[in-house]
Write a structure and sequence with these properties.
The protein has 631 residues and is of the alpha+beta class. The protein contains 27 helices and 10 strands. The strands form 2 sheets. Strands 3-2-4-1-5 form a 5-stranded antiparallel beta sheet, covered by helices on one side. A 5-stranded antiparallel beta sheet has the order 8-7-9-6-10. Strand 2 and strand 3 form a beta hairpin. One of its GO terms (cellular component) is plasma membrane.
């Protein structure tokens, strides 16, 4: 049994703290990863000072070469490759090819839930093999929502399959997910440190090739499709009833009404901005109707006149007080409908759902703190978080990834929100800025990147960076858009957790965990230990970051395989696939959280739908590895 040294205990303590912080997210996960990186670098010098004054028995070194090893994540080929893939994905997205393909498929689905399900998964899975799967889900979310509405199907029936199928597709190629790219680099680093490498270890010294595990990816993708078409569709809830009218879907009738300003109202002569600033009521003025003309935001500069009709968002109790104090009367027989809220421009979308995107600058902020109304010239009418609908006192609710906001604004405001990378508009809207003439170029760039890496003419990091540059040189992307394309929180997360793998290996923490797993050998055959590895990694990934799971478990996989005299290749693949397929919780994978609000899901929906699938994948992946790459 490996020794439980002070270094091992300290690494385990750091891992425990980091996993708790990842799971509870009191601060963003990328900040936690940065803190981990700093802690690993500080431990050595700090312990030397403490031992010098007699407070410690001796120095504790967690990294062999600090700070070089601590900062290595920023120079890692995995980090740079993932950064380049974000740029490539954005270049493809801006051509509009995915939206065009989605619309063509949507036209074939009709009101058949089976065809809708098949089209949703059939588009996102292969797409996710070649562009970032979070980007794939973001691009296709409006299409899938529209398919559901047009086919009179609950979007809850399609959005979990959209997320899960993006994970299936991510297992098809090396570039399918950041997890695969990271696993390839961590495995190569560990393999190159093995003193007397076996042929299986040598096979990992250059990492994975582009299509190295595509055969297994195809197997799990087919199994995932069959699961949803045969079993999963009946486990999916209908949290959001299919409605043609967004006002009805968000049940706004109790919170929206129309009032008329009386001649004796103290508001007459004030601007809307001043009136809202002075009121103590929880109320929003949504739209103004004056002489049959409808005005939306910006309403602030408008001077209130007697006879003005305002659509207001507030609850019934507040409305009664508002009428008495502010000199207004309720307009009888006002009906809250989407058409009524789009009177300003019936030919355009004025009422849409927007989803807070991963990496958004508004995460951790509130509607008030980001000055949403003033910044975007739009009004938030309701907020949906999972299955919870919030229609009052929303201004100070801290926003999270996946929160869905029902927003009213002018066509220009909606267009600006759609162009803003902080949000995803959850319905297809008219837009004219796709670079459709660049579609052949963007496809050619992606094919060149994949082809050059697949035939080993260039390392994947070089071909991906070359492709990113080509996207700009060919006009698929403008230079200023390159930085917006990158999810910097993911890049910082990768850079921060990579040194943990080095610490696990250097201190012997990985060897200690391997000894614990190998202790099951008298009771379990090697293939069962392989399956156990999959289950443990999947369980970890469903609670914390998938990238952290890879960094934590791959060094353990090598040591376990060595002690079992088994192929480390098989164990590394088990970790890679398990970390890429987290189905049991909304926090297990970024795409799960992304569809949480738009689908109106509860936390337990993921457990009900995902647990059987996770168990099926554990068996299929373990057997598939054992057959394709014998232990």
């Amino acid at each position: 049994m490996a020794a439980l040294t002070p270094e091992v205990l300290l690494v385990f303590a750091l891992v425990t703290v980091v996993l708790v912080l990842f799971a509870t997210e009191p601060v963003p996960v990328d900040i936690t990863a940065l803190g981990l990186m700093v802690a690993l670098m500080v431990a050595g010098p700090l312990s030397q000072q403490l031992s010098a004054v007699g407070l410690l028995g001796g120095p504790v070194e967690l990294l062999p070469d600090s700070p070089a090893d601590g900062l290595a994540g920023f120079a890692s080929t995995a980090t740079i490759t993932v950064l380049a893939m974000f740029i490539l994905s954005d270049g493809v997205q801006r051509t509009g090819i995915v939206q065009i393909l989605g619309r063509k498929l949507a036209a074939l689905t009709g009101d058949s839930e089976t065809r809708q399900l098949g089209a949703t998964m059939g588009v996102v899975a292969p797409l996710s093999g070649f562009i970032n799967n979070t980007a794939a889900v973001a691009i296709l979310l409006p299409m899938v929502t529209d398919i559901a509405h047009e086919g009179n199907t609950s979007p809850s029936k399609l959005l979990i399959p959209l997320s899960y199928a993006s994970m299936f597709g991510g297992t098809l190629t090396l570039i399918g997910t950041s997890t695969n790219i990271l696993a390839s680099e961590v495995a190569a680093d560990v393999a190159n440190d093995v003193a007397d490498p076996s042929p299986a270890v040598v096979a990992l010294q250059d990492g994975f090739s582009m299509f190295e595990f595509t055969s297994l990816g195809l197997i799990v993708t087919v199994v995932g499709f069959v699961y949803f078409l045969v079993v999963g569709r009946y486990l999916l809830p209908s949290r959001i009833e299919p409605e043609d009218d967004l006002a009805a879907e968000f049940r706004l009738s109790e919170y929206l009404t129309e009032v008329v300003v009386r001649e004796d109202s103290p508001l007459v002569g004030q601007t809307v901005r001043d009136a809202l600033a002075e009121t103590e009521f929880d109320v929003d003025l949504v739209q103004l109707i004056r002489d049959d003309e409808v005005f939306l935001e910006p309403l602030g500069p408008k001077t209130i006149q007697a006879g003005d009709l305002f659509t207001v968002r507030t609850d019934r109790e507040t409305l009664v007080e508002l009428l008495d104090v502010e000199g207004m009367d309720v307009v009888p027989e006002f009906e809250v409908t989407e058409d009524e809220l789009e009177r300003a421009d019936p030919a355009a979308e004025n009422l849409v759902e927007i989803v807070v995107a991963p990496g958004s600058h508004v995460v951790g902020e509130s509607i008030a703190s980001v000055n949403f109304r003033q910044r975007y010239d739009a009004t938030v009418l309701a907020l949906r978080r999972g299955g919870e609908l919030i229609r009052k006192r929303m201004d100070h609710i801290v926003l999270q990834v996946g929160d869905t906001l029902l927003v009213q604004g002018t066509a220009d405001s909606i267009q600006r929100l759609d162009d803003n990378r902080d949000f995803i508009v959850a319905q297809e809207i008219e837009r004219h800025d796709y670079r459709e003439e660049k579609i052949p170029v963007a496809i050619g760039v992606i094919l060149a990147v994949v082809g050059l890496a697949a035939v080993d003419l260039l390392p994947i990091v070089v071909s991906a960076l070359g492709g990113a540059v080509a996207m700009v040189l060919t006009g698929c992307l403008k230079p200023g858009e390159v930085y917006d394309a990158v999810q910097w929180d993911v890049i910082v997360l990768l850079a921060g957790v990579i040194p943990l793998g080095t610490a696990m290996q250097h201190t012997g923490a990985a060897l200690y965990l391997a000894d614990l797993l190998v202790a099951t050998e008298p009771y379990l055959p090697a293939i069962a230990v392989l399956g156990l590895f999959y289950v443990l990694t999947a369980a970890l990934t469903n609670v914390v970051s998938n990238n952290a799971s890879v960094v934590l478990m791959i060094p353990v996989a090598f040591d376990t395989a060595a002690k079992l005299d088994a192929s480390p290749y098989a164990f590394v693949l088990a970790v890679t696939f398990a970390a890429s397929t987290a189905f049991m919780t909304p926090v297990g994978y970024q795409t799960n959280l992304f569809v949480y609000g738009p689908g109106g899901y509860k936390f337990t929906d993921y457990t009900v739908v995902g647990t059987p699938l996770q168990l099926v994948f554990a068996v299929v992946t373990t057997l598939g590895i054992a057959v394709l790459w014998p232990l």
